[in-house]
Amino acid sequence: MGTTRLRRAPAPTDAERARSITARTGGAAALVGTGSPIAHPRLHHVHADGSAVLLLADDEPVLQRVHGGLAVMLELADAAPVDLREPVRGLLWITGLLSAVDPVRARRIAVGLAEQHPRPALLELGHGATMVRLAPDSAVLSDAEGTAALAPVELAAARPDPFCCHERPWLGHLESAHPEIFTALARHLPAPLRDARVLRIRPLGVDRCGLRLRVETGEQDHDVRLAWERSISTPDELRAQLRRLVGCPLRGTTAPPDQAAV
Fold first, then answer.
1. In 3-state terms, what secondary structure has residue 46?
2. What domains are there in the chain, each with its CATH number?
């Protein structure tokens, strides 16, 4: 069952959307080396320019081929913030050379990551897992907005969307506690969808340019972007723009929770 994009509206740039995917550290990752089976890193962290450090189980076959550099592709899957029947909303592929990281340097990197993004998998370094580094050559983004090739310098110059790391708890809260909001948003759908047998309107994403909805019908799913009046960057602006779309006063609980850092 595929998805159909029915409306084009202002959206973050290709590089911004790619950076947002890398910033969501929980995204699935797969590593494909030439002639090697797919490897699933125990942990991955992607830097601004697309370079990445990965923690691989010691029995991953790809580790036997990284000495001197191995051409690989890292795949990051961008999952929707709520449980959808088609959960992947975008993919980012980063190609480059994979190389081993010296154990002393690997421990130093792990300590730095633990301070910023503490994750249990870091404790596996040296105890069943090995750290490797990906030096990027290029990246390709594919999502509902289209497909784009990006250079590391373009990624490094962009910033993640201000809401990219907060949309999951906020949209999950809206859907569970305020389902009437999505019923009210139905009036903004394109005419063919308003006339279709809509099973459910689901939250798909939110960014500085607008709100993304997944419209589930009996035949297929459709992705719709509803634009804000202007680009936004704060929770207060987000609350005001959502009020405008819904067309009625909303309680303060619809504001993104715990967004002091946004």
1. strand
2. 3-157 (2.30.110.10), 167-254 (3.20.180.10)
CA atoms in the 13 A half-sphere facing the CB of 163: 27
Calculate ∠ Cα 46-88-117, nearest 5°.
30
- The Cα–Cα gap between 143 and 27 comes to 14
Q: pLDDT tens-digit profile of 151-208? A: 999 999 999 999 999 999 999 999 999 999 999 999 999 888 877 777 799 999 999 9
CA–CA separation, 203 and 167 (whole Å): 10
Can you say whether residue 200 is alpha, beta or left, with left for phi > 0 and alpha for psi between -120 and 50 degrees?
A: beta
Cα distance between residue 145 and residue 240, in whole Å: 25
One-letter amino acid for residue 173 of the chain: H
3-state DSSP call for residue 126?
Answer: coil
